[in-house]
Design goal:
Length: about 130
């Protein structure tokens, strides 16, 4: 299955939510993984990621972080806020699965149907013609 923008979609094996892979990964971290097990997170705004670079980028791009940082003012030390989990848990195929497209489902159904149909034994009727 594909999202409206053409991206593949995935399904959470815990709650059944369907979304793009990146958004679903964020959802799994937010809703199904304890924050201390998320590979990288921010103590200030609770941003979570399995990618260190995204954690660093969130300092400039993530609105919730910027709002919270503005309240703290210049005394904010971002290095103390960014956390790398000592025993990280990553989102894998054990957490989310790709939802097949309609075309994939149709092709698989047709393949199974043809295989079953070809395997059927049909009696062969022979006739003898005495006159030609």
């Amino acid at each position: 299955m594909k999202a409206a923008n053409g991206c593949l979609v995935y399904q959470c094996l815990y709650c059944g939510t369907i979304d793009r892979k990146g958004r679903l990964t964020d959802s799994v971290f937010r809703d199904h993984v304890a924050i201390e097990n998320v590979p990288f997170y921010c103590r200030l705004c609770k941003f979570r990621s399995q990618d260190r670079l995204k954690l660093c980028e969130h300092l400039a791009n993530y609105g919730r972080h910027q709002q919270a940082a503005a309240k703290l003012g210049p005394m904010l030390n971002n290095r103390e806020l960014l956390v790398k989990a000592p025993s990280p848990r990553f989102v894998t195929e054990a957490d989310i699965i790709r939802v097949p497209s309609i075309q994939e489902v149709a092709a698989e159904t047709e393949s199974v149907f043809l295989t079953d149909w070809l395997a059927e034994v049909t009696p062969v009727v022979t006739t003898h013609c005495d006159t030609l």
